[in-house]
Every structure is written in structure tokens, then in C-alpha cells.
Amino acid sequence: MWFTITDRAAHGIPLGILPAPVPKPFMSIQVLDEMVQGGFEEVLTLHDRKSGLRAFLAIHDTSAGPAFGGIRRFGYLDEDQALMDVLRLSKAMTHKCALVGLPAGGAKLVLIDSPDLKVREAYRFIGRRVEELAGRFYTGPDVGTGSAELAAVAEHTRYVTDPGVAGPGDLAGATADGVFAGMAATLRQLDGEEDWPRRKIVIQGLGGVGERLARRLVAVGATVVGADVDIERAERVGRELQIETVDPAREFGEPCDVFAPCAMGGIIHDVAIERLRARAVAGAANNVLARIGHGDQLHRKGILYAPDFAINSGALIRGALFHLNGERESTGEIESRISSAITDILGQAADENLPTARVALREAERRINMRRDSANKPPLQPT
């Protein structure tokens, strides 16, 4: 089966994040070739007539343990964009597991949102399919999937994060805490110290994670500037935390120590890098770079990048260890894991004068290949 994808979709840039691109020629990929090149184990296409569900589930790696990944519900441009997103996101989850030392791998389920979708029935269907996988895949929250949706999934499977008191706890808070620790490590790499009262942080996206991160930063005395496409949400958070908010069109041009993307991915691209006036990029969003080459551009401009799949692993750490060991990982333990991972990556990159994104990918794939060697599975091809 052949899929055609636009250049924009291939880079994982969701519709609505950027102005409409200049039309370009279509490129084509073959799904099985993409799986072989990326080291994927399984890609499932899901459809349910009753709910109108159309979805993809990608399981990237189970060489060290079960695969973990949330359910992303998003209004994709088309199936091709959704397919590329599920491949990118599931592979990034494996990278996360490897870098923070979890005995697990990566997966992701993306659900194509539409006005006709019967949401609760769709999530119940997902629960039945997850249960059929018998523990190869554990799922949880993501963009568009919150407590109500997870409760519907949980009606039909054991392999989902319980949003209530029986579950692992506050996952958005765990992500925010990990980003805070990774941001601190980034500042230490830049200046040898955190010195929060002297810092200005621009947070793009004031949703569940972005708002929690803003609260942590305000509590330690940092100057925080927020931006969100949801104007009402931005105004509410601004009032509650007494922080400045700016129009999203101005966020890249705001001078700051750290630009923290905490919304959708693919936002560090040619135009953004040209306008960016930050000393570092460190945030909670997945797949922040539109392409790996944009990490190279940040390096050339002297902007320090904390790789997203290392810094935003807090929820994964808390959720995976709860499911695997029955443990509720503490905030301090999550921060320690992520701080250590970011410190190691940034230190190696500085020693070799290489882009941090390249170093993080190299280290993650080295660890994944060691796991696959032990499990007698084919190694990943170099990224």
C-alpha cells in the first residue's frame, strides 16, 4: 500500500500550527519500508463503524519490556499526516525510555478527530483493542485525551492509566516537574548556575503542563511570559499567576533565557529559528524540531537545545514504573532521572561540539541497539 504525504506532514507539523505552506510536490513512502528503516514492530489501522473511529496504532519496540504511549486525538489534515505522526511519536517514546533507563519501549495511538466522531464509543473500542494486545501496549493521556476518555478506555482494558486515585497520580504535573529539572540543567550548562530570579522564561502553551510549569517557575522567582492560542486560557493563567502574556504571533521574538514549547510539535522550523531570541529551548512538547536539521541550525546560532524526548519524560516515568512495579515515583526521583539525562547529553555535545539533538539520538539508539542485541532483534538503522 502506498501513501502520499505532503512535505509538511512528513515533518510532523500539525495543521493550524503554521501559516499555510507554499504548495510543493508530493512525496511518497511505502509503509513497510518505513517500518523497516525505523525499526517498527507493528503498525495497526483501526476502524469502527459504530463510532466512526479511524486511527493508527504503532508499536515501535518491545525488546526491553512492554510499549507505552498515549492516545492522541487531533484533527489531522488527512490519514497521511496521522500516519507520519504516529510513527514519529512512537519512535520518540522508545528514545525516551532508553534515555531515562526504563525497561520499556515506545508506542502511540493517534485518533483522527472529526465532528461525526462518537467520542465515548470510540474510546471504548480502543479499550477493547488494547486489551486484545494482552499487555504488549499500555496507554494513557495525550493531546485530546483526558480523564473522561481514559475512563471509557478503562471499561474494557487493564492496560490503561487510571485517572483516579487508584492510578499513578498527576501525570501532567510529573511532566512539568521533569521539564523544570531539565531546564535547570540547561541553565547550569549555559552559565554554571540556575539563578532563577535573574531568568526570563517564555512558555508557549498554557495547558495542563504549561500552566504547572509556569507555577513552578513563578514560585522560584523567575520572570515568566506566557502565550496560548486559547486567549481566554492565557488571560486566566495570566491573572492567577500575575504573569505577562503575549500574542502567540510575538512569542518567538520575545527576548528570554529559555523558550519553553509546551503545546504541539514541529514548531522549531526555519521561520521560528530566524525570529527566535532565546538562549535555550527547553519544553514539554513532543517532536519540537520540524526536522533534525533544525537542531543543527540551533547549534550554529548558539542556542542550546534540551532534546524533547529526554526532558519531557516525567509522565512516562511515573506511569511506566507504576504499571511495571506498582510504584508511584516521587517528584524528586523524576527530576533526578531527567536532570541526569539532560546533563549527560548537553555535556557530551559540548565536549564534541555537536548539536545536542544529534547526540541525544545517537545515545538513545546506542542503548536501544544494546537491548535489541540482548533480545536477538535487528538493530535500528542510523537516523
Quick structural overview:
This protein is an alpha/beta fold. Helix content is 45%, strand content 16%.
Describe this protein's structure:
The protein is 45% helix and 16% strand. The strands form three sheets. Strands 3, 4, 5, 6, 7 and 8 form a six-stranded mixed β-sheet that branches. It has a six-stranded parallel β-sheet with strand order 11-10-9-12-13-14, with helices on both faces. A two-stranded antiparallel sheet has the order 1-2. α3 (79-99) packs across α14 and α13 (331-352) packs across α14 (356-374). It is globular. It folds into two domains: 2-154, Leucine Dehydrogenase, chain A, domain 1 (Rossmann fold); 171-362, Rossmann fold. Residues 1-28 have low confidence and may be disordered. By secondary structure, the chain is an alpha/beta fold. The chain has helices spanning 7-10, 31-38, 79-99, 119-132, 147-154, 171-191, 208-219, 231-241, 270-275, 292-300, 308-311, 314-325, 331-352, 356-374, and strands spanning 2-5, 27-30, 42-48, 53-59, 67-68, 71-74, 105-112, 137-138, 200-204, 223-227, 244-245, 256-261, 278-281, 304-305.
